[in-house]
Design goal:
This protein has about 270 residues and is of the alpha+beta class. The chain has two domains: about 1-105; about 110-265, Glucose Permease (Domain IIA) (Distorted Sandwich). It has six helices and 13 strands. The chain has helices at about 1-40, 50-55, 65-70, 75-105, 105-110, 250-260; strands at about 125-130, 130-135, 140-145, 150, 160, 165-175, 180-190, 190-195, 200, 210, 215-220, 230-235, 240. A hairpin with a 2-residue loop joins β7 and β8 (about 190-195). The longest helix has about 40 residues, at about 1-40. The mean pLDDT is about 85.
């Protein structure tokens, strides 16, 4: 009788512990979701995959000896859940450490993100937006337009093109059947921008550039039907709508102040 009573008491305590661990697992799972979709996303960090978060120990069955003496299986499952939570909590703790380090660079990210127009909107018009459109050359075909097209109101080549955030020039190439002369800039934090159909590139690969610095002149190279700039924003490897990142109604004098700032010399 005493043994039965103690068994029931310990079984009840173990059941309660298992339920609490299950509740903790749900809380930790929600933390992981917010970590991937909010915290890491905001700072342009790669998500932590489920394979890493939920990876087992592999190899020899660590619970074989316990399982052979566990008639109900409750103790084994509780032990396995506890071990899994310990590992997931450790990985989540490391992830938060990484986010904390990156968040300290928030000011740097603010000037690296592509947050200004690549041209002075006072001098251009938007010729084509982001998304599905009729191909301008093969008019019977619909294609996804992965950027925006900005054409000079004058119709002439040479309109200045400015880099939209601090970064490093990754590519300066000529794509005959596509982009023509183009520049690809890596801004870090998951952001890249592309400037295509250029008349001239004023920077070279590996060069550091500052937001508002002129990097090119607008042209009509490659697969193009007229003078314009094709501008793309790529975030975490995926093309996104550039217009969502800058204010196209910015006042000309405000824009002039931005593009003049990289040329300012510090006081000695």
């Amino acid at each position: 009788m005493i043994v039965d009573r103690e068994y029931r008491e310990w079984h009840s305590k173990l059941t309660l512990l298992h339920r609490r661990l299950e509740a903790a697992d749900l809380t930790l799972t929600d933390m992981e979701r917010r970590d991937n979709t909010l915290y890491r996303s905001v700072f342009g960090m790669e998500t932590v995959s489920d394979d890493i978060r939920n990876a087992g120990y592999g190899g020899v069955d660590r619970y074989a000896d316990v399982r052979n003496r566990d008639y109900t299986g409750l103790f084994t499952s509780t032990l396995m859940l506890s071990d899994r939570l310990m590992k997931k909590a450790y990985i989540q703790s490391k992830s938060f450490d990484q986010v904390a380090l990156v968040s300290e660079r928030a000011a740097e990210m603010a000037v690296c993100a592509p947050t200004i127009p690549p041209v002075n909107y006072a001098n251009v018009r938007q010729a084509s937006g982001f998304g599905m459109r009729v191909d301008p050359i093969y008019r019977d075909r619909h294609r996804v337009h992965q950027g925006v097209d900005l054409a000079p109101k004058s119709g002439k080549e040479g309109e200045p093109v400015y880099v939209t955030g601090n970064g490093i020039v990754k590519e300066v190439r000529y794509d005959v059947g596509g982009y023509g002369r183009y520049i690809l800039v890596d801004h870090g934090f998951g952001y890249q921008t592309r400037y295509a159909h250029l008349k001239a590139a004023l920077v070279h690969e590996g060069q550091e550039v500052q937001r508002g610095q002129q990097i090119a002149e607008m042209g009509n190279t490659g697969r193009s039907t007229g003078t314009h700039l094709h501008y793309e924003v790529i975030y975490m490897g995926r093309h996104v709508n550039p217009v969502n990142y800058y204010n196209k109604d910015i006042l000309p004098e405000d824009y002039a102040a931005i593009i003049d700032s990289p040329n300012e010399k510090p006081l000695s």
